[in-house]
Amino acid sequence: MARHGRRPHPGHPDRPVPDLTALLVDRKLRPLLRSPRVHARDKLAETFLTCIENNFNATEVAARMQVHAQTVRYRLRQLEALFGQDLHDPAQRLEFHLALRAWIGPRH
To answer: What is the pLDDT of residue 108?
Structure first.
């Protein structure tokens, strides 16, 4: 059995397979995860995920999160400061979505 409950790496049974989900979360969300303000970080992550899932429509995001649309726009500006233009890059959205979903967990 592999160490730490991980599968052995094919061809290298003494080396575990890397946790690709953790690598994705770290790589894509690093600027956000470095924030020392846990409560604010969690709200930004939830806003980011909801924005991606609602095509960055601040009015729709606000309704789903039960906050004012201006609050969503403020948080988007904070996210833009962290992630730059990658935030709105369609090619990056899938990776952001997967990383956020993995980090936040499933919604009920």
So the answer is: 42
| Contact yes or no for 52/67 (Cβ under 8 A) | no
Are the beta carbons of 54 and 64 closer than 8 angstroms?
yes
Query: What does the alpha-carbon distance between residue 12 and residue 52 come to, in Å, rounded to a whole number?
Result: 38
* Dist. CA 26–CA 63, nearest whole Å: 29
CA nearest neighbour of 65 among 3, 27, 107, 23: 107
Average per-residue pLDDT for the chain:
86
Return the ∠ at Cα 24 (arms to 37 and 38), rounded to 5°: 10
Q: How many CA atoms lie within 13 A of 73 on its CB side?
A: 4
Site of tokens 């309704």:
63
* pTM beyond cutoff 0.85: no
> Residue 52 is inside which H or E element, if any?
helix 38-53
Sheet strands (E) in the chain: 8-9, 12-16
Residue 32: the pLDDT is 95
Residue 106 phi, psi dihedral angles, 5° rounding:
-70, 150
